[in-house]
Amino acid sequence: MQIRGLLLLLALILLAATAEAGKNKKEKVKKDGSECEDWRWGPCVPNSKDCGLGYREGTCKDESKKLKCKIPCNWKKKFGADCKYKFESWGGCSAQTGVKTRSGILKKALYNAQCEEIVYVTKPCSSKIKSKSKGQSPLLPS
């Protein structure tokens, strides 16, 4: 009878310790202590010039936060670094304008950014004429 009571008491202590450990884990999940879930994030603002490390500000009700962010220095497109697009291949060169065009369809909008569904980009046509015989050596006379 005493062994049964001792085992029951031990089981209750173990159960209470497990429940307390579970509470501590749940409390640690909240990093910032904010209960707000409807955050609105602004664009990434570089610390200097127009690319590199920077920050973005977020607001939710009367709370505000700053997050670190980075704008790649080769990313100077008008639609911003928070809008990710899947682009088609470049089209042919227009003889009238001297540029080629391609379109991109929105793949992902980061931080609830306001992005266009389809964007068009252009670049100047290459003035070089590419030969199709790359990798082939001319025949040598014997």
UniProtKB/TrEMBL annotation:
Pfam families tied to this protein: PTN_MK_C, PTN_MK_N
Signal peptide residues on this chain, from the entry's feature table: 1-21
Coiled-coil stretches: none
Chief location category: secreted
Gene Ontology molecular-function annotations: growth factor activity; heparin binding
Keyword field: Developmental protein, Disulfide bond, Growth factor, Heparin-binding, Mitogen, Secreted, Signal
Disulfide bond is among the record's keywords: yes
GO CC annotations, alphabetized: extracellular region
Residues annotated as domain Pleiotrophin/Midkine N-terminal: 23-79
Domain Pleiotrophin/Midkine C-terminal: 80-136
InterPro entries to which the protein is assigned, alphabetical: Midkine_heparin-bd_GF, PTN/MK_C_dom, PTN/MK_C_dom_sf, PTN/MK_diS_sf, PTN/MK_N_dom, PTN/MK_N_dom_sf, PTN_MK_heparin-bd_GF_CS
Lineage top rank: taxon: Eukaryota
Location relative to the cell: Secreted
Family that this chain belongs to: Belongs to the pleiotrophin family.
PANTHER family per UniProt: MIDKINE, PLEIOTROPHIN FAMILY MEMBER
Role summary: Secreted protein that functions as cytokine and growth factor and mediates its signal through cell-surface proteoglycan and non-proteoglycan receptors. Regulates many processes like inflammatory response, cell proliferation, cell adhesion, cell growth, cell survival, tissue regeneration, cell differentiation and cell migration.
Name the record gives this protein: Midkine
Gene of this entry: Rihb
